[in-house]
Amino acid sequence: MYFLWLSQLCRGLSRPLGSTTQPIWGSVSRSLVLSSQRRIPEFSSFVARTNTCGELRSSHLGQESAASVKKILCEAPVESVVQVSGTVISRPPGQENPKMPTGEIEIKVKTAKLLNPCKKLPFEIKDFVKKTETLRLQYRYLDLRSFQMQYNLRLRSQMVMKMREYLCNLHGCGYRNPKLFKRTQGYGAKEFLVPSREPGKFYSLPQSPQQFKQLLMVGGLDRYFQVARCYRDEGSKPDRQPEFTQIDIEMSFVDQSGIRSLIEGLLQYSWPNDKDPLLVPFPSMTFAEALATYGTDKPDTRFGMKITDISDKFRNTEIRFLQDALSKPQGTIKAMCVPEGAKYLKRRDIESIQKFAADHFNQEVLPVFLKTNRNWNSPVAKFIMEEQRLELTRLMEIQEEDVILLTAGEHKKACSLLGKLRLECADLLEMRGMVLRDTSLFSFLWIVDFPLFLPKEENPRELESTHHPFTAPHPSDIHLLCSEPEKVRSQHYDLVLNGSEIGGGSIRIHDAELQRYILATLLKEDVKLLSHLLQALEYGAPPHGGIALGLDRLICLVTGAPSIRDVIAFPKSFRGHDLMSRAPDSVPPEELKPYHIQVSWPTDSEAEKS
Amino acid sequence: MYFLWLSQLCRGLSRPLGSTTQPIWGSVSRSLVLSSQRRIPEFSSFVARTNTCGELRSSHLGQESAASVKKILCEAPVESVVQVSGTVISRPPGQENPKMPTGEIEIKVKTAKLLNPCKKLPFEIKDFVKKTETLRLQYRYLDLRSFQMQYNLRLRSQMVMKMREYLCNLHGCGYRNPKLFKRTQGYGAKEFLVPSREPGKFYSLPQSPQQFKQLLMVGGLDRYFQVARCYRDEGSKPDRQPEFTQIDIEMSFVDQSGIRSLIEGLLQYSWPNDKDPLLVPFPSMTFAEALATYGTDKPDTRFGMKITDISDKFRNTEIRFLQDALSKPQGTIKAMCVPEGAKYLKRRDIESIQKFAADHFNQEVLPVFLKTNRNWNSPVAKFIMEEQRLELTRLMEIQEEDVILLTAGEHKKACSLLGKLRLECADLLEMRGMVLRDTSLFSFLWIVDFPLFLPKEENPRELESTHHPFTAPHPSDIHLLCSEPEKVRSQHYDLVLNGSEIGGGSIRIHDAELQRYILATLLKEDVKLLSHLLQALEYGAPPHGGIALGLDRLICLVTGAPSIRDVIAFPKSFRGHDLMSRAPDSVPPEELKPYHIQVSWPTDSEAEKS
């Protein structure tokens, strides 16, 4: 007995069934599951169906059953659900399709029954049929039938399952945490509030289980992990979801290298088998090096175009704006070589690059085109001495037809600018047909030794945590904590994949005094909100640390999906709306009474502002 | 290298280490994991520790390392965290403790380091030390170190992991659903609201993923399961949590028997190996039979004391109140036999039983004490004919020293009363030392054929869904839907364990017209709120059904914990408070602005009312 969504079946059964949802479902699961070398799930256990048609192969040839009833199948609309019994037979010579697993066979139908008809579809369910995302989200239950969504979601749940096996069965982690919590330090503004039945009392939906997982360690649970749903109320940030999922891990008696090895093993174990296996350990780089070489803390290391400091080479240059830069304290000159830039980049590309630099960094960028190494084509070419030219060529491995981008200024600013331009140029070069980044490559990288504190933007004299206030200082910098806190490195680590941050964590502070000093004295925060955590640390808290991986982004990169919304079954629109059920929705005032709240409607003027 | 919580270590290392958290942790996990016949998790992978001391056995005897530093260990307070290196040696003769896995050995300490001291504990961390639940919840991170909590949480996460293996790896289920949703039909009052950044717009935290899982089936995902966090705002109900966890399952092309087999297989597969294996299939019983025989829809079938209808035997009785009952339409006479009641039940027990019946059911209950079968001791004994006596004795298998409880009235009411009294008497008999219910017994039972609708309490002329409006009617009763809807049975099924409902589900309506008819015409509900679901059913929705198991209650029954709070790491108090972090908490008005809400403080009079 076969159950399937009817799709062009009426055009005759010799047509590949592969394009109906049910069959694809079958075949996706098969291929994925086989490739992941685990017991093949039974998709027809507990149901009347004997096979999904995607499962049928020439091995099923001639399986017993009987014939006819074309009428039902011809009259049933596309995407209707039908129940079919029949015989699996070979396709007529010449109609086989070797490209499809089901391509050798067709079904000679004996009985057919229309289980549920489908009314006219808002769009054709084909991956190649373009549809607006709004339409896709509004009819998500139809969009989910597409091959790509079925593939993404199945791969997601299989990767997660293998992560669970690795963490639970192999390394003894477990447990889940509550979601209704107390407002947490600092993040307040970004949290979702949940009114309780007590007047003026609110829960909040935590942005991460950070505090609970630390408390579990104090509770002697030793190893914790959960696939944690987290909530962040960020209004309409593109490619962010108000609720997102992270693989959340915490361990007692662990150090940085322990967590890193655990994560490397985790990703290696759960990595889809239709991709090249991962090589571990992943390389690691200090924050300082990442900034100096790639101008960012999440470098895409799939390609070069590294930033070079050429200050020394231009100590006595005649180029005015370079002179000015070097004359200033911490003035530097940085250069980046764009391979074959002279061939691929147009004049207007350079102009837009210079405009970007001026607009966003208030920086000057100087291009140098290399027709040949002898002939540098640039407004400042004549000021570049032969010896400088040879130096640079050697230092930056400059080739003919490259373009060098020069800029000058304060180290961090100059690097950040070139870091941005590096990605800009990469996109441009690829747009123009150059193959720069290997899309089949997964380039993981650990970033370590972040500064523990950063100067506050609004008031640079005060400090704020680079990550969060529970991060432990680097052992070798502890002595600087009182004297020069801004110089203290942290025991935080980020995991970067192809230029996206997909995870981060740290060794935590387990000493109550140190935690209190950092919160109260250095960060000037109100410790009352965290008294329960500070208190817990006083009762024999073990040294501990952890990490969280952003699952949505990870799966997004693994599947190559354009948006995280393509790896989530029912995502919110980028405005945070559920376009299918139309949430959030209004609530009549009387139904707000039990929660002791009322809506404060903005005045017109406020409404205009927002 | 060993890391452990110090507990009485200062009294000399010959004392069993088993009473420190770390060791117990080790030993619990060990025993559980071994018994569950899966790869033993590695508890010291990725950390500097070589062993938790609970792992140490005589097989470790003489393992290399060095000696001394008693001072640190003697001065460190109980429950401090220490790092110890040393040699595992045999205990001195006579000090072995065969009852403990670690009982043959002790550690000759070479080096010891105090990693984190513990200040004076609010209570001693011993299972036998009684503490108020308030204190336990306030210091949950200490309570979690107790043997029992470690056992409960570990067993929970291992059972859940095995459920995942069964559902994902063996039967191809997967996927997760969003939590921020639209308010759902009917339940509104019980939902948590989440204010959005749009004036007057609210999300809600769903009480169950019901709609999403049905939409996944329409989306062709065929088999769904998730360990779903659900939210129900019930104020202060004892042994209910505002957030709870359910094993949530939905399948396409499935019928009742399919779901039942799946669940039986699931529980059998995930059942702890230190318990007797489960026998499947579980017995099943119709709702009507459960009511008639046990006076409830969740009978505890670990013991008898069934209800018997003896109306026929008393057609022409002279006992007045029985006469009256029979004279009324649907009048019945019911009897229940309390084994050895004459021996165990005191006069005042019977009186309190009669009072309960009068107070809660406005019913009369007549006791008959059987000294011997010849001599029935009861106010009405003389009205019970010899032949009736023999009839009853045969029918109810009455023995000497039993007590019969007689009542009369409308079927449902009389049964419900005796159902309550059955449990009352069971408790009384056990209190008096009788062994009635085998506590090691797990007695599963399916209840089926519930009525699809019930008359509304406030207005019995109107109908409401017995469970929820998506439940499909029983195929053989469809013809009654228009004429006598109250007679229609549903395709809902409940799973009962030892008298507690631990799960329920149904085959769903997949026909849009039928769904609309039931919502609009029979239930008089506003279909607008569900338009997205109704619309989805029109696009070729497959026949589908599902079930949800209450995980907290299930684990509670398996572990024999007194409260579900004992199987949740960080539960809320029965008032819904987090006593550790003191949530819910107040929020200053200015921080409510972004959510466009303000608190409406109750007037004194209102405050008094609530």
TrEMBL record, chains A, B:
<keyword id="KW-0648">Protein biosynthesis</keyword>
<keyword id="KW-0436">Ligase</keyword>
<protein>
    <recommendedName>
        <fullName>Aspartate--tRNA ligase, mitochondrial</fullName>
        <ecNumber>6.1.1.12</ecNumber>
    </recommendedName>
</protein>
<dbReference type="InterPro" id="IPR006195">
    <property type="entry name" value="aa-tRNA-synth_II"/>
</dbReference>
<dbReference type="InterPro" id="IPR029351">
    <property type="entry name" value="GAD_dom"/>
</dbReference>
<dbReference type="GO" id="GO:0005524">
    <property type="term" value="F:ATP binding"/>
</dbReference>
<dbReference type="InterPro" id="IPR012340">
    <property type="entry name" value="NA-bd_OB-fold"/>
</dbReference>
<dbReference type="GO" id="GO:0050560">
    <property type="term" value="F:aspartate-tRNA(Asn) ligase activity"/>
</dbReference>
<dbReference type="Pfam" id="PF02938">
    <property type="entry name" value="GAD"/>
</dbReference>
<keyword id="KW-0030">Aminoacyl-tRNA synthetase</keyword>
<dbReference type="InterPro" id="IPR004524">
    <property type="entry name" value="Asp-tRNA-ligase_1"/>
</dbReference>
<feature type="domain" description="Aminoacyl-transfer RNA synthetases class-II family profile">
    <location>
        <begin position="223"/>
        <end position="584"/>
    </location>
</feature>
<dbReference type="GO" id="GO:0070145">
    <property type="term" value="P:mitochondrial asparaginyl-tRNA aminoacylation"/>
</dbReference>
<comment type="function">
    <text>Catalyzes the attachment of aspartate to tRNA(Asp) in a two-step reaction: aspartate is first activated by ATP to form Asp-AMP and then transferred to the acceptor end of tRNA(Asp).</text>
</comment>
<dbReference type="InterPro" id="IPR004364">
    <property type="entry name" value="Aa-tRNA-synt_II"/>
</dbReference>
<dbReference type="InterPro" id="IPR047089">
    <property type="entry name" value="Asp-tRNA-ligase_1_N"/>
</dbReference>
<dbReference type="InterPro" id="IPR045864">
    <property type="entry name" value="aa-tRNA-synth_II/BPL/LPL"/>
</dbReference>
<dbReference type="InterPro" id="IPR004115">
    <property type="entry name" value="GAD-like_sf"/>
</dbReference>
<dbReference type="InterPro" id="IPR002312">
    <property type="entry name" value="Asp/Asn-tRNA-synth_IIb"/>
</dbReference>
<keyword id="KW-0597">Phosphoprotein</keyword>
<dbReference type="GO" id="GO:0005759">
    <property type="term" value="C:mitochondrial matrix"/>
</dbReference>
<keyword id="KW-0547">Nucleotide-binding</keyword>
<keyword id="KW-0809">Transit peptide</keyword>
<comment type="similarity">
    <text>Belongs to the class-II aminoacyl-tRNA synthetase family. Type 1 subfamily.</text>
</comment>
<dbReference type="GO" id="GO:0004815">
    <property type="term" value="F:aspartate-tRNA ligase activity"/>
</dbReference>
<dbReference type="GO" id="GO:0006422">
    <property type="term" value="P:aspartyl-tRNA aminoacylation"/>
</dbReference>
<keyword id="KW-0496">Mitochondrion</keyword>
<dbReference type="GO" id="GO:0042803">
    <property type="term" value="F:protein homodimerization activity"/>
</dbReference>
<dbReference type="GO" id="GO:0005654">
    <property type="term" value="C:nucleoplasm"/>
</dbReference>
<keyword id="KW-0472">Membrane</keyword>
<keyword id="KW-0067">ATP-binding</keyword>
<dbReference type="Pfam" id="PF00152">
    <property type="entry name" value="tRNA-synt_2"/>
</dbReference>
<dbReference type="GO" id="GO:0031966">
    <property type="term" value="C:mitochondrial membrane"/>
</dbReference>
<comment type="subunit">
    <text>Homodimer.</text>
</comment>
